[in-house]
Amino acid sequence: MSHERGADDHSQHDQHSAAHSAPGSADHGDRASHDKHAGHSVAMFRDKFWVTLLLTVPTLIWGEMIPRILGFTPPAVPGARWIPVVFGIAVYFYGGWVFVKGAWGEIADRKPGMMTLISLAITVAFAFSVAVTLGFHAMPLWWELSSLVTIMLFGHWMEMRSVSQAQGALKELAKLLPDTATRLENGKPVDVPLASLAAGDLLLVRPGASIPADGVVREGKSAVNESMITGESMLVEKHEADPVIAGTVNGGGSLRVEVTKTGESTALAGIMRLVSQAQQSRSRAQVLADRAAFYLTIVAVSSAVITANIWMALGASASFTVERVVTVLVIACPHALGLAVPLVVAISTTIGARNGLLVRDRRGLEEARNLTTVVFDKTGTLTRGQHRVVSMKTEGIGDDDALRLAASVDQDAEHSVARAIVASAAERTLAIPKATDFQAIPGYGVNATVEGRKLAAGGPNLLEKLGVVAAPAIRAFVDEAGKRGEGIVYLVEGTRALAAFAVADAIRQEAIEAVQRLHADGIEVVMMTGDAKPVADAVARQIGIDTVFAQVLPEEKAKKIKALQAQGKCVAMVGDGVNDAPALLTANVGVAIGAGTDVAVEAGDIVLVRSDPRDVPRIIALSKATYRKMNQNLWWAAGYNVVAIPLAAGMLEKWGLVLSPAVGAVLMSLSTIIVAINAQLLRRARL
Q: Are residues 499 and 590 in the same domain?
């Protein structure tokens, strides 16, 4: 995975503090050297703008052009002719020097860009005005220099403000953690700083408090708001032995939580690293925009030189010629082009994080719009990875009654199938009665007395032992379940089989909706699993999957992905296990289920915080919306310059249409603002 520096590093240094320890941030020093806003902040440009604006006002009032255009006489004050000079020089060194320093950095890196163009424009205007002040016969450009610097500072302030807001995901995540935690020491609550927490500490989390570290509930019951981490709006019930995540908010109950992970090891810190990585990784569109900005700088400087030569050859005045040169340099600043992609990507990364879609590599998000095939791992992705009752057949008893009685008999049993019966009854919120006289029959099942009835539960061997023959309807049900590879548990009373339960890895209901959405987008859905073909085919039929790869060995998964790609398909792989990692890396887009292993998460381009397959079509929707905005911004930013540069050079001077440098700066800033507003509209995208 490439985690090079993108052109979106506009944010303040404190916004990158979390990134310094993040994976892929080893090249931070290189990024800083190339960052046109290194050491800058929103507040700095804001303050410089307001001070420069105050310095510009006297320059405009006592300058030559504005009084002439508006037809007024400025107030007579001693030394009035020096006011534009003094204030113009102050504007250049106070407000304009930030651009000159930026230009030196670009030239030193051999990457001339917008800072170079701005500094050329204001330096040419400054040098020309100094020459006029010292005796050269022409009209000085102090007022244009001042207004140009002021407008440029305003444009940069707005740009950095937009990018800073868009890249607020890291700050928002950091704010989720409380400043202190309440640790129980010898049973007494003591407030301690987060840095002092260690694995094994027992914390008291009061109602309404943020959970300070990842941990496990050891005592108490509550509902926790995890929406800020997972995007899930519903409160999540927490009981003893349930895991909790740092940064989530406790509800109305009091919890005692044993710390399992702190600091950089927590899920929240991992999310912050992923968001930081995504904002640093470069997309193909960004590479294109950077290259275009570089060539536009060359075109602008060349156009300025050609403009100067042509007007001088035509006998134009020095003042007019310099104005044309300055206007060309100003209006050609690739500011909008430089902002077109980074701002869209920063916003899309933030939108993704807020919706539980963590983008590790932006190229993965960019490629998602081209997907033709999505391959899902079965266990833990399309299914829960936990056995449940998936269907049942009863004889002379209701379904709920049969399930609650079977759960009562099985509730003290240790077998995983028995646990599936109990868990299924609990999920249906059935009241499970207490059983007495419980007895395990090794190899056959269990029996117990429930509500005065002697009942037994177990597999086919139990029926043989008890000499029970199931009713024809139950036998037919069992045969069908066997074809699907599902396990069977019988509920028996005396010599009669009351019910048969088919037990299998439970399908996520969300998977059915996810497949329907992908089909609606014209995308083929494939399931890949190591399970036997009958089991795999049964799951595929229930979910509506097109193609099934069954009995696939772990080392063969990547080969299956390559085979699909060889057919010309753009493939996404969605998985959560260690053996999915090679396939995730091989696919055009690797999507890791966040609840899965760390290896799978590290291999994926995009991480789903929730174990929800419906997030896959959401990724595609976000990718398409992001690409549309990038394209719109790039076309506007590039197309604007095609029209603006000839106009700035004075091609329409014959018809009286001439742009001053200040008007050029206004148009350039307007172009940047349009791009920024258009990027912000991405927030309206529906995933």
A: no
Residue type, 403: L
Residue 210: inside a domain, yes or no? Answer: yes
Which among 463, 485, 507 is the end of a domain?
507
> Is 102 among the domain residues?
no
- Domain annotation covers residue 81: no
- Distance between CA atoms of residues 218 and 206, nearest Å: 14
Q: How many domains does the chain have?
A: 3
CA distance 590 to 361: 10
What residues contact 563, with CB distance under 8 A and at least 6 apart? none
Q: Which two tokens stand for residue 604?
A: 């994926």
Range of the domain at 238: 198-261
Say yes or no: 366 and 515 in one domain.
yes
Question: H helices of 605-614, where?
Answer: none
The pLDDT score that the predictor gives to residue 483 is 81
Mark the ranges of the chain whose per-residue pLDDT is less than 70: 1-40, 65, 69, 113-114, 138-139, 155, 158-159, 161-176, 227-234, 270-290, 292-293, 333-339, 577-579, 594-603, 660-662, 664-666, 668-669
**Domain membership flag for residue 652:** no
Pairing mode, strands 214-220 and 243-244? antiparallel
For residue 426, the one-letter residue type is A
Which residues make Cβ contacts (< 8 Å) with residue 522, sequence separation at least 6?
372
| Cβ count within 10 A of residue 436 | 11
The residue type at 504: A
| Number of Cβ within a 10 Å radius of residue 260 | 16
Note the pLDDT of residue 164: 64
One-letter identity of residue 543:
I
583 and 471 share a domain? no
- DSSP state string for 547-570: EEE-S--GGGHHHHHHHHHHTT--
Q: How does DSSP classify residue 396? A: S
**Residue 377 annotated in active site:** yes
- C-alpha torsion sign, points 610, 613, 619, 622: negative
pTM of the shown model: 0.63
Residue 163: name the closest of 329, 53, 16, 362 by CA: 16
pLDDT at 8: 36
pLDDT tens-digit map of 66-85: 777 677 778 888 888 899 99
Kind and range of the H or E run holding 663: helix 661-680
How many CA atoms are closer than 13 Å to the CA of 287, on its beta-carbon side? 9
pLDDT at 334: 61
State CA 323 to chain mean position distance.
45
SS3 sequence of 296-318: HHHHHHHHHHHHHHHHHHCCCCH
Q: Which of 377, 505, 531, 615 is catalytic?
A: 377
